[in-house]
């Protein structure tokens, strides 16, 4: 379903695109493309919904999601 890179981006969706880009050494435009693909594949329209659906479907685990806490 999701590529490994899309899963990496998904785990960082709590961050702004520019910060995701820095952490993964890719451009912000590439991040935007990955986010769009994630939304399409998970049929969702926002970041929180994408994370929730991915956890519910077992794509990622809750503890894998980056939070600034």
Short description:
By secondary structure, the protein is mostly helical. It contains 4 helices and no strands.
> How many DSSP E strands?
0
Percent helix: 55-70%
Structural class: mainly alpha
CA(first)-CA(last) distance = 29 Å
Radius of gyration: 11 Å
Total number of helical segments? Answer: 4
Q: What is the H/E order?
A: HHHH
Mean pLDDT: 96
- Outline the low-pLDDT stretches: none
Strand content: under 5%
Largest sheet: none
Shape: globular
Report on the architecture of this protein.
With 69 residues, the chain is an all-alpha fold. 59% of the residues lie in helices and 0% in strands. The longest helix has 15 residues, at 28-42.
Question: How do the helices and strands line up, and which of them pair or pack?
Answer:
Layout lengths: L3 H8 L5 H8 L3 H15 L4 H10 L13
Helix pairs in contact: 1-3, 2-3, 3-4
Main attributes of the structure:
single chain; 69 residues; mainly alpha; 4 helices; globular
């Amino acid at each position: 379903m999701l590529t490994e890179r899309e899963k990496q981006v998904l785990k960082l969706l709590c961050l702004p695109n520019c910060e995701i880009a820095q952490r993964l050494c890719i451009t912000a435009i590439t991040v935007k493309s990955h986010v769009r693909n994630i939304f399409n594949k998970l049929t969702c329209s926002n970041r929180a919904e994408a994370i929730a659906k991915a956890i519910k479907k077992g794509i990622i685990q809750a503890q894998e999601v980056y939070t600034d806490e």
